Amino acid sequence: MENTENLAPIVLFVYNRPAHTQKVVEALQKNKEAKHSDLFIFSDAPKNENANEKVSQVRSYIKTITGFKAITIKEQAQNQGLAKSIVNGVTEVVNRFGKIIVLEDDIETSPYFLKFMNKTLQFYETEKRIWSITGFSYPIKHAELPEAFCYFAISAWGWGTWEDRWKHFDKNPNKYISLISTPEDIHHFNFYGTADRYWKFMANRTGELNTWALFWYAVQFVNNGLQIMPAKPLSKNIGMDNSGVHCEAVSIFDCDFSENEIEFDFNKIPIEENRLATKLICDFFRKHRSNLSDKKVR
Q1: C-alpha span between 145 and 221 (Å, rounded)
Q2: Is 252 exposed, middle or buried (0-12, 13-18, 19+ CB in 10 A)?
Q3: CA-to-CA distance for 295 and 35, rounded, in angstroms?
Q4: Domain ranges in the chain?
Q5: How far apart are CA 238 and CA 243, in angstroms?
Q6: Which residues contact 7 (CB under 8 A, 6 or more apart)?
């Protein structure tokens, strides 16, 4: 990337998976933009004694990381939980810098991830219908699918946004139960009936769930916002291997990164939902419905 003066800060959330964390960091270091980027690492405290050793291993490792412009480590004294940790960490950094790139300790990236994210964040900063950017792509293929497109939902597996969009984040299930209430809106929110997301508002209200990405999706949805998504993946989840707290082994998202960086003309991407991409993604959800239960991917 020619301009390295205005790169978005990278925020990495870690907990108790030292091997995953190291793999994520080493992949990120292969991006040419890494050495010009600020890295903020938020390390959550152990939830219980069983997590002490792994959290300690992670914290020892992150203190050895190099290869970035500057590294700031924030070790929580008490366990925050994933949702609170991400919401507070994203808010703190994006309010300071105006834009942000967000990763968790199980999101591996391509060597071209940071270039794509920064170029896209810069280009769409003033395009108010674009609320977020992601490097993730579902394992879908079609000859007519463009290199990048607008998607009505979100992926939080390697994503970015701006302060003026994130300020609307509101983790209030009653608000979205009220705003997304018609059968048509609920059907749309549930990926046109191919995946069930709406019930999680009720689960968050009762305390059965404590999530954050659902509400980021809802904010974008009710504001008629869009996310920019590449057709070929530049980030992927490597944590669906029984290593997470609520995660069973799932392989349907497995993918290989493109060996080449994505080059495309931003001006040729219509600022509207790409119906072909939506159809392909909904077909993917429909095909793998039994493997996409909340227990498996939460």
Answers
A1: 23
A2: middle
A3: 38
A4: 10-297
A5: 10
A6: 1, 33, 36, 37, 38, 114, 118
Assign 174 to helix, strand or coil: helix
Alpha helices by DSSP H, the chain: 18-29, 52-62, 82-97, 113-123, 163-166, 173-179, 183-189, 199-206, 213-222, 275-287, 294-297
What is the distance between the alpha carbons of residues 63 and 86, in angstroms, rounded to a whole number? 20
In order along its 298 residues, the chain shows pLDDT tens digits of: 456 779 999 999 999 999 999 999 999 999 999 999 999 999 999 999 999 999 999 999 999 999 999 999 999 999 999 999 999 999 999 999 999 999 999 999 999 999 999 999 999 999 999 999 999 999 988 889 999 999 999 999 999 999 999 999 999 999 999 999 999 999 999 999 999 999 999 999 999 999 999 999 999 999 999 999 999 999 999 997 555 544 455 567 777 787 777 778 888 999 999 999 999 999 999 998 765 554 434 4
Distance CA 121, CA 124 (A): 6
CA distance 28 to 10: 10
Are 75 and 82 in contact by the 8 Å Cβ rule? The answer is: no
**CATH architecture of structural domain 10-297:** Alpha-Beta Complex (3.90)
